[in-house]
Structures are given as structure tokens and as C-alpha cells.
């Protein structure tokens, strides 16, 4: 289990695949870990070296002094690339990870080849909503947020068909460090890249879930409309489309990256 030490914090990551092949960096959503990319490993790992990490305050990555902003989340990615001596990567992030990708596309495009933004928005939710969710978990722990997550993350059909797999993800969310989760809610509360992403010039693919109630196809249209030349795809899924529609997700991603 490799860890990167960063000023009293540690960042948990995994780098799998053959040295010399292009690196695809995968960035997780709020309340998940690098394990969420399990459905991508076999399909994408044949062609790409896969670099995954737990976002700050999640999984094996600690929070540090407690504060968290989108710039810090983006800075963690740059610190990881520097530490591993990797100049440039393809970047794929989902939801909060997609916001981190947008931040990198704006502030560090020289470290990226192609950008894949999945089930995300240039501004996710509202500051008020994130502040109240942060306050809830700081006060009462993860139980209430975990209880509502399945309906935010997956369609009813997927929940019925894959109850065991979903239960595992929800259990992991319930065990998430409340302080780490809340700090990332704080980061989401202030993250607003609606103007800034117009400056992104990287080849970009924007993926939405047709039934995503959190970051909707309209949010994806907004991003694709602001980034010149961005490609735009809808999948038959809710919020965690990389899990719910894994085969289609992998195909779309490979077609874009391999082109
Ligand atoms: O609310 C959720 O659990 C979904 C979500 C919002 C931002 C993110 O990364 O996940």
C-alpha cells in the first residue's frame, strides 16, 4: 500500500501496470475510495498504467489540519505526480473527482494529455447544501448521509439487481471518516469553476448519467458548452456511472483516449 507523505498528511495511492505505457489517473467521488474503480481495472489496465488515489480525508488518505479546498485537492494530484516523477497523465475524475479534473485543466494543463469529466458539474449543488451536510456529519456522524446515498448514486433498477454490491459501497461510506468527508463538503461548497473552465483547451470528454439526480445531463451540457471542442456522452445510469454502466463507460473512455 504506497503512501505519499505530505506535510504531516499522507496520501494513499496505487500505481498498477507496465512502466512505459501512458498513465491514466483516476479520481474518486465524495464518500468513496480508489476501490470504486475496480470495474475499470481489467478493461483500461491493458492499455494504460492506472494511477488511483484516495482523495484527501477518504480511505487511506488523511485530512491533515482539517481544512480543504478544491485548490488543495488539485494540489494533491500535482504533488503525487511530482513524487512519482510523472510529467503528464490522462485524467478521469467522477463527481468531486471531476471538479478536481476541471481545476487541473484550468491551473495545470501542462500536466495533462486528455481530460475526462464524469458525472460532474462546474458547480455541484449549493454552498448552503454542502455546509449543512458538513455540519450534519460533524455533529452526528455518517449514518444519515449513508442512508440516503444509494438513491443518489444508483437507479432503482440497479439497486434491485446489485443489492449486495451497493450494500458494500454504502457500508464503506458509513465507515468514512466524518471529518474528512465534511472537509470535502466544505471544498465543494466553495468550488465554482463555471467561468474558469472556458479557458480549458485540452481534449475533453464529458460523461453524464441520464438518470443522475446530483450532477445532471444539463450540468454536463454546460461544461461541454464552455470547453471548446469537448465531446459529450450520456450513459444509461445514475450518478456513479463508472459502476452502474461499467462496460459502456469503459468503451467510451477507451475510444476517447485511444483516438
Ligand atoms: O451526494 C453524493 O453523495 C454524490 C456526490 C456529490 C459530489 C460527489 O463527489 O458525490
UniProtKB/TrEMBL annotation:
Domain AB hydrolase-1: where? 22-245
* Taxonomic superkingdom: Bacteria
Q: What is this protein called?
A: 3-oxoadipate enol-lactonase
From which source organism is this entry? Vogesella alkaliphila
Return the InterPro entries for the record: AB_hydrolase, AB_hydrolase_1, AB_hydrolase_fold, PcaD/CatD
Origin organism lineage: Bacteria, Pseudomonadati, Pseudomonadota, Betaproteobacteria, Neisseriales
